[in-house]
Design brief:
10 helices, homodimer, 17 strands, five-stranded mixed barrel, alpha/beta
Chain lengths: 355, 355
């Protein structure tokens, strides 16, 4: 019997302002070369090379981001670009792509990947993906990639791993005891201390049959609407869907969820501060991303981002984020990286440009 | 008897790198709008308005800076632009201009002003200048403007004031007891504590007769060479002159030096840090010069310089100098403003661009 065909879904519809001023006009980080030489979306697609051919890569994004998707992935087929009329969180997005693939190939396997994560090395990721497809061959399992936690994160959902069900391609496949929504700090610290907890990566592998069954059981109305939506009226059907996260609507309620751990480098690159881990720091601990030149006197632990041809000069400063992009320059204490969002909101409220 | 005619000499030949990256390609601060809406040279000329007509304003600069002088003062007459073939410090520059004015009008009065100082308000400066011209009418006095010191500066020469010789236009005219070259900190602190000491501003007023006599007595060879230099060979004559400061060669040895104090705002704008005093700080103490927009969250005592149309955003930072200019951005702790010079030297040694 031939091995089932593997399709990929890249979730590229997110929005965000934490990477201002590199991110402008609503162009969020998946379309930017924040962490490498090419956009995060292009790097996510490249991570699948040799495992999923381009004609089986689907991208879910919103209509107003279509041009950026094509900019990042010039080879994408029109039929593989699923453009939401507007964002409705991950449950509708994942369900739409999953049912579309199931329509094309009821026997297929599927991998769902956020388009704005950094994962290294590629070989290790592909090994996990191959193991996950093995695990999904039972046509009932929903396999989630769990990240071995390195700090008590309050920005991620957590997974309590259960027993090891099997060894797959040399990796442990865990049962999932339960999911925990983004916890308070004290609880996250407890999880870290207890062990056996992982971060929910939002990366999934399943068969067309398994995801159809899970959708039909846990979000029957969503599944029915998406299946029956007339092409001429798809936009209004989609817009009327409930805005809900896939984890909450489906994953937390499903019984056949399995987990494969990721022990190598993973980052959701949540803010400028995350770039420290992505760019090898120089001798003084300064990290430069984006191609700019940096010259530093007595400066350490800074994160610098600016395009090629720009120079960032640092004298006597520490723990700063310095970003130059177009007509704006950001200088931010590292511990305040989350507040870039606040600053952008203030620019918006004051109706200033530079957004 | 008609009042003597007043000529002005603007010394615009200085060089410097402390205002990098606004200052590039050897374009020093007198040609830049560092401290206001127009270049410091143009502001210096504007400070003379109503007292010295433009046709009696002479500018001393170097040949390679001529284009910048014309950019700042489009009205300058060719014959009033004295271009040194190369810089020879202030004694040759001042002597050249003084003897040139004396040649044109032996009866004239002269005011010599560095082109890179900020003085406010203009009316107060003009009052001091009018008093100085009164004092210089005796045809023997060399009048220097003394700055009432506000801190123990080690970057300026100091003047020990003697007795009050006269009241001129309501201002005290002091005898000068002695000049002190840039002192060590402890000595500067002593001067400040003792009182009766002033900073040497490098601004002078004298008659053509008085300066000719002083030059003939204290730098006779310099005066003779400049007077006799054949036009066709002026460059090589000038290049062969001794490189020496006017204060050392003439002023410190002259006996007929008088001083008028400046009690109002004066700054030689020695580094980015000096701009704090020039731009009214906002409620958080951040100073913005150069036309950029600034948006700040929990940031204080920063000095920001960038051209119009640029935004500088600050989050959680204090006591920084942030400068964006062309293809370079500087982020420097305020107390390290002097080290901009070091950084530029490093760029030069490493033969990098951005200079």
């Amino acid at each position: 019997m031939a091995a089932p065909t593997l399709y990929a879904v890249l979730l590229a519809g997110g929005s965000g302002t934490r990477f201002w001023p590199a991110s402008r006009a609503g162009k969020p980080k998946q379309f930017l070369a924040i962490a490498g030489q090419q956009s995060m979306l292009a790097e996510t697609a490249a991570r699948l090379e040799a495992l999923v051919p381009r004609e089986r890569v689907l991208v879910v994004s919103t209509g107003d981001q279509a041009a950026w998707v094509r900019e990042c992935l010039p080879w994408i087929e029109r039929e593989n670009l699923l453009l939401e009329p507007l964002g409705r969180n991950t449950a509708p997005a994942i369900a739409w792509a999953a049912l579309e693939i199931e329509r094309r190939d009821p026997d297929a396997l599927q991998v769902v990947l956020p388009a704005d994560h950094v994962i290294r090395p590629r070989e290790a990721f592909q090994r996990t993906l191959r193991a996950a497809t093995q695990a999904a061959l039972d046509r009932t399992s929903l396999v989630v990639f769990g990240i071995r936690p390195s700090f008590p994160a309050t920005a991620f959902g957590w997974i309590r791993a259960g027993e090891v069900l099997a060894r797959v391609d040399g990796l442990d496949l865990f049962a999932v005891q339960r999911f925990v929504e983004k916890p308070e700090l004290a609880r996250a610290q407890q999880f870290l201390a207890d062990g056996g907890y992982y971060w929910n990566s939002g990366m999934f592998v399943w068969s067309s049959a398994a995801i159809r069954a899970a959708l039909a059981r846990h979000v029957p109305e969503l599944a029915a609407r998406l299946t029956r939506a007339p092409a001429r009226d798809f936009a209004s059907t989609y817009a009327a869907l409930e805005t809900v996260a896939f984890d909450v609507a489906v994953l937390e309620r499903a019984e056949n969820v399995r987990m494969l751990p990721i022990d190598y480098f993973w980052s959701d690159v949540g803010s400028w501060d995350a770039l420290q881990a992505l760019a090898p720091p120089d001798a003084q601990g300064n990290s430069c991303v984006g191609g700019a030149s940096v010259v530093a006197l007595d400066s350490s632990r800074c994160i610098v981002h600016a395009p090629s041809g720009q120079l960032i000069a640092l004298i006597g400063v520490e723990d700063l984020i310095v970003v130059q992009a177009g007509d704006a320059t950001l200088v931010c204490k590292r511990e305040r990286a989350q507040d870039v969002k606040t600053l952008v909101e203030r620019l918006r409220v004051e109706q200033r440009s530079f957004l």
